[in-house]
Each structure stands twice: as structure tokens, then as C-alpha cells.
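Self-study notes.
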Amino acid sequence: MNNTKRILVIYTGGTIGMVPSDQGYVPAPGFEARVRKHLNDDIVQQLPEFEVLEMDQLIDSSNAVPADWARVATLLQQHWQQYDGFVVLHGTDTMAYTAAALSFMITPMDKPVIVTGSQIPLGVIRSDAVDNLTNSLLFATSNELFEVCICFGNRLLRGNRASKLKTTALDTFDSPNFEHLGKMQIDVELYGDLLLRGDKADFCIPEFSNSSVKLLMLYPGITADMIEAPLKAADTRAVIMISYGVGNPPDANPTLIPALEDAISRGIAVVNLSHCLWGDIEQGAYSTGATLNRIGVIGGRDITLEAAFAKLHWLTSMGFDQNGISAGFTTPKAGEIKA
């Protein structure tokens, strides 16, 4: 790690910078002054030089929308040449969505972007804020990282492979279907054979629509109105269907398959994921899944819900049709290739 590099920290809001209010914790400006107050001189001397850029509108990440992904990416693009690496401070609730979206909007890249936050606000007893920030700053100086990562709880995860899996633990993030990229122990460890190669950064930041991608969660006894609502909405461009096991739908449901077939015939891309977090989609392993292959449902393989949602937003906003979207999910690593 190299503490002679310059790092830009982009503060978007989230628990890490929240302060108490009558309504509970809320995002607050002035994060840089507060964090430097908590870093003693000995620690600062061992960290890279960093500056904090606060977004004009700080948000609780549960309020984040796709347009906010573009705001962060635009800030990164505007400052890309002036810094050696970047840290994005973000709330944990939708951190994995933003990290995945950034990974699709900036591909390839020649510098690291580390997304982090905390479960406990800075300044509160037992807060994880300082550790997560200092770890992220160190990872952001790496000469080996050329991708978007999440650093949390001493783990370094690929940004579009991560999910928030715990609500009250400090190791809240993990990557169900991909190895960790590194970790902070006594020494900093990076697993070089897993890392992406760097190349000149390419930014493709579209104008996102908040409503173009819908979610269809299957459950026992699902009714026709719940099936048809996302598939028949006028602004729908793509739908993520959450099915069972390796991608099995209730094909005996009289509404589901005809509704899917109709939507696909109208140009809507349907991507099939599973309720299960670990493992692959294998449409065709059972006869119910084979029906999906026949009508053109796209198997999501082992991609996370967050990455699939961000990827579909990116692909549809960039103007890809069903064939282009399908190609984006059938590459060797569907969670890692942007198109």
C-alpha cells in the first residue's frame, strides 16, 4: 500500500456520517471535520493524503434511486484525473446496488473505487466507522486494484458480487457466490489471481429511469394481479423474477407462463433469479424450468439481486434490446461484465 497517493473521499450520506435528531439518526454535513477529529496525528501520518467531497444532497441510502448512482459516477468522472484512488461513503441499506451500478458504468478502469460506510455512526461508542474508512483508504492506494469494491468488516469484496446479509452485525456484507478479494488482518492481503486487470477508464453514464426495471417475487399461491402488475406496466423494460431453487416457477399457475410469454413478445426482458442466495440458476434441470427456456426467459446464473437490478437498469438505459440484455447475462461471468 502507498501512503504517498492522493485519495478523494465522496460522502453521500449514510450511517457513517449521521448524527442524532428527535426523529433518530439523520445524515449531517461537516463529515470531514468530524472524522479528522477522530484520527490522531500518528494515524494520519500513516494514511494517504485524502480530501472529502460532500454531495450537495446527503441521503439515507434507503432513499437512494438509480439517478443517485449517476450522480456518484459523474463526480468520479469529474475528478478521475486529479486523484489516485477513490472512496465512496454510503449507507449500508443500498450500498450493494450502488457499488454494482458503478461497476457497470465504469468499465474498464485504471484506479480503485472503494465503497464503504458503517453500521454505527462515527463518534458513537463501538463505532466501526474509523476502521472501515481507514481500511478503505489503504485499499484505495493499491497498485493492483482496478475495480469497484466494497470494504466492510475487514473484508474486500467485488462490488457487483456483494450483498448485505446481516442487519445488526459489523460483518454485514458478503459475496455469496464469489471469493473475497482481500482482507485486513495484521497485514493487508490481496488475492491477485482474482483481481480484474486495469485499462484506461471508460465511463458510460446514462440517464436512468426509476421505473424501467420491476421485480416479480414468486410465492406459493401467487395471484394473477400480482403476476401481471409488473409485466403489464407501460414503463416496464425488464423484470427480475425471483423463483424457487435452481430457477423453477410454478408452471401450473394458469397466469404465470402466458403472462411471461406475452411480456417477452412485447420486448420486455425477463431475468430469472432464485430465492436462494448461494448457487446457480439452472433452467431445464426440472421440467418447470425448461418451460422458461422455451419462452425466452433469461437465466441469471449466480448474479446477486442487487447486481441484476443495477445491470438491467444500465442495459435498458443504454438502449440495449432483449438480445443485448440476454448477452449481458450469458457472458462467462454475468455479474462482472457490463454488457
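Second protein, same conventions, sequence then structure:
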Amino acid sequence: MNRTVLLLNQDYSPLAICSMERAFILVFLDKAELLSEVEEDRLHTVDKSFPMPAVIRLYQYVHIPYRGVVLTRQNIFRRDRFSCQYCGTNKNLTLDHVVPRSKGGKTSWSNLVTACRRCNTNKGDQSPEAAGLKLQKKPHKPTYLMFLRDYSGAVRKEWQPFLNYAS
């Protein structure tokens, strides 16, 4: 059972993506309510059958002080869909500072992109324009909701109404 479940806060805002097992326990212990279930599957015990959760909502509000997306190598790759932002390949990927660090470029969401080793080497210590390269899209910092909706891997059809709710 390698399914994931969308976990919503009491106010229906997305909190996290959790395992199906954790979601079932939260519902079973009456800490969350089942909002949407997987139609084609159920959980079975020796003598009972339970709906398999797809979306659950906590009964008590959980205050999360910071819900930003952490700047990590893997999250940059996810944002850029594991493809070079110059040529589009998905082989030999690395990170590139759009404005080189030697020229004052920061390590930030708006200055880091995924690049293949060849494009990164060709760009060297220059701006993309000076190296004759064009970015496919401008780098940006994803919001937490955007990250859950677009970059978390597999967004189930049952999640769509809840992820679009807060956007």
C-alpha cells in the first residue's frame, strides 16, 4: 500500500501529503474526517472493510507558523520538472546560478535553475544572454500550495477540488 493522502487543516487548507496508513489511523482514532475516498479500492481486515482515504480533514486546527518551500537541490529539480532550463534535456542535471556568484548572484529561488552539465559548462561564468542561451521560463519561488499541487509527484483526481480551493 504505497498510496498517499491529502491532509487538510480544519479550515480546509492543505497541510501535507501523508501515507494512507497514517490517514487511516487519524480517521479511525476520530482525529480527522474522511472527505474523499478511493472509489476502486478498500481496506480489509479479517471481518471488516473500510473506505481507503484519499482526502482527510483534521477536526482540530493545527497552527503552522511557516509553510514555505525549503530551498533544496531536490526542490529546484522538482520545480523545473527535472529538465535543463536551457535545452530541455533530462540527463546529467546540475544546478546553475543564472547570475553567476562571482558577479554577485545569490543562492535563491529566483537565481537557481536546473541545467545539464553541457549547458552549465557552456554558460560558464557568464549571463545566459552572453553565452547565447535562453531560459525556457523565469525561475520563481513556488508557494506551498503550488508546490503541493504541481510538484509533489502524483496529484490524485480526488485532491483537485481541495487544492484549487485555496488558490
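Instructor comment on the second fold: The chain has a mean pLDDT of 89.
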